[in-house]
Each structure stands twice: as C-alpha cells, then as structure tokens.
Design goal:
This protein is an all-alpha fold and 289 residues long. It is built from twelve helices and no strands.
Amino acid sequence: MFSKQLKWVYLVILSLVWGSSFILIKKGLIGLTAFQLGSLRIIFAAFFLLLIGFKTLAKIPRHQWKFIALTSMFGTFIPAYLFAIAQTQIDSSVSSILNSLTPLNTLILGGLFFGLSFRRNQIFGVLIGLIGSALLILNGAIHHPEQNYYYAILVLIASICYATNVNLIKKHLHDLTPLSITTGNFLVLLFPASLILFFSGFFDTVHLKEVQQSVFFIMILGVVGTGIANILFFKLIQMSSPVFATSVTYLIPVVAFFWGLLDNEMLTPIQFIGAFIILVGVYLSAKKP
C-alpha cells in the first residue's frame, strides 16, 4: 500500500520539477545558444551526480554498461539538445505539451520491441491524455500563428527517445539502483558534452552578465531538473509500469502553463479544459482493472 501511494508522490514531484524545466530553458536561451545550453545542462548534472554517486558505479556489471550508454543517449543526450533547439522557435508551454506524447510512444515501442503488455485501461488513459494534449496544441497554434511548428518535430523525436529510454531501463536495468543508473549515464555523457561546449564559443562570452545569468538558470536545471529528477524517475519506473512512469508528461504541461502565465504566456479556457482531460488520462492509465 505504501508503495502505491509513494509512486503518486514521485509523480507529483517530478511533474513540478520537469514542468518548471521548460521555463528554465527559455530563460537560459536568453544568453546561451541551444548547444551551449544542452551541454551545460549535462555537465552540471554530471558533476553533481558524480559527487554523490561515484561509489555506486562499482555496482554496475560490465555487461550492462552498453545499456547504460544507450539509456544515456536516448534519455538525456539527444533530448537535451532537441528541446533547446526547439524552444528557439516555439513557446516553452507548447514544448511541454508535445512532450506528453511520450506515453503513447512508450506503449507502441514497448509492445513492438520490448515484449511488454499493457492493460486496456492504460491504453484508454493514454488516448484520453492525447486528446487533452491535442486540445492544448491546436488552441495554442490558433493563438500563436507566428510560431514555427516545424521545430515541434524535434520535440516529437525527443519523446520517442524518452519512450525508448523507459523501455530499456525497465527491461535491462531493473536490477540496478536509480542512483547507479543515473550516475553511469552522466559519466558516459560528460566528455561529449564538454567537447561540444568547448567548440560552441561559450568561453569567449562567459564574462557577459547576460550569459552568467543564463548559466545560473541552467545550473538549477542541470542539478535539480536533470540530476535529482532522473534518480526519482528511474525509481518510479522500477516501482510502477513504464506507462505510469511516463504519464508524468501529462502533468508537466499543466505546471509549464502556470509558469508561462507568470511569464506573460496567456492561457485560454480551452487550454484549461485540455489540462483537466490530461489529468483524467493520468488517472485511467494508473487505475487497476
């Protein structure tokens, strides 16, 4: 019973943290390029995780490092840059909405390639959540015709990466601790992210006040929104199902919209209805038959 309640606590915490990530990316892009932002996000998270979890690396068997490398690419490396590039053209709230497609991709990939089975009510929950997301997307497109929605494709690709990551962890890394998985992920990513940052021109502009302010926002994003959040997320995957874990992406847009409201991104009544429908989808995806 405690485990059933705890997974909901993790879900709420993750929705608050990741829902706030999109506004942090928006603030970070004021002084940073997309590649600088993605690299700094990974580097800050890596140093934090190596500080607290270095000893757990010894618990990872040699044969599982290939899955650690795969999950680091699909779960962090590729999405970190895709989201940053996408938000140079679309609002943070729109980006968070499109991210809610992750549970559907998790179902499809899990069924096709990972041999995972899902209950009928989970499928209904995902579909209802997608309806709510569609309302938010279409309404946002109507009220923001100036946005370049071609960049939204990058967020869709990122959601497929997230879905792949969740299924890989559930199938191949379920016996490792969340801290071991997360620390291993970022150890793998530290060098390539540092290399990209070095060639991005970041060190030529780091003295600028605008850049320093953006770095501060990305430090918060890296440590809290990436490092700590990934530990909680991997724990949630292990204690629940892949679909329930990724249903956090239904709650993220709700949090992101409220941040957007504070940053002068307007909400409409239709968007509030869409947010409510999303919550219904989360409930159904987790409900026992």
